[in-house]
# Entry
Amino acid sequence: MNAILMALLLLCATEAAGQQKGESPSLVDEGARHSFAHGVHELGRGSGWLRIDRLLLDFRLTLDFRATTPELDAGVIVRTWMGRGGWPDRGFRIRMPTDATARASSLFVGHKEVVSVIQEGTIALRPGDEWQKLQIEGEGRRITVMLNDTLVVFHVERFGGHILFDNKSGRVQFKNIRIASAERDPKVPSNLMPFEELKKAGGQTPRLVRDVRPNYTPEAMERRVEGRVDMEIEILPDGSVGVVRITRSLDPDLDAAAIAAVRKWKFQPGVLISESSRQRRWARNRQGFHPRSAGVR
# Structure
């Protein structure tokens, strides 16, 4: 028993370490004042940005950064989508700080989006020109930011999107960029009841009450990609969407856009009527029972 438990713990630790490491992403230069040498990116003041080369759903981003000028206004923008002009529409920006005089939550700002702080922390920077460690994790509606030893957790109402690096003032260096993203083809839980079985059992199937349309990305527009994405989804008891699995793919970016949109859908949950409830209802109908006559309104 102990051997099995230790094996399971070792497996979990190995998987967590692999997820933490991630992979080194390719960066797309969108008009940034950017240079790269000896594994270090340097970003100067400008109106452009660097962009990770693919759309991301749930993710874990880690990097080291340091300011090379006294003033700095560099940041990481997450959960953003690019508009027709190639500019970010809305999203969230995590600023890279140069001093420890503010609450950690002040570093996280929503652009046309609402942010709720779940867990607060105080900034703790390393001294001098030492590298600062930054980890940003997006999981569902939760954004977790770890700056060195400071943890802050936020609640947002946005799924998926691009990750950008920008700088509005001064110069910043960053290195060791690693990204780990969620699988786009997860396993749907085996204990779920398909719509067909729910209908056969006399239950009420879920009803869509909020429909969010997917973003059509500029890259897909340029390639003139069009078509449909088929997927299986898990509808949770509260009407929200759980696991989403692509069953018919169209395009990696548009698949991600479709998943991000569907995860914002809201349903009136399905209802499975038990056999005893069905029998009671049948008996009441036989006796001429009417809800109004029993004072139910």
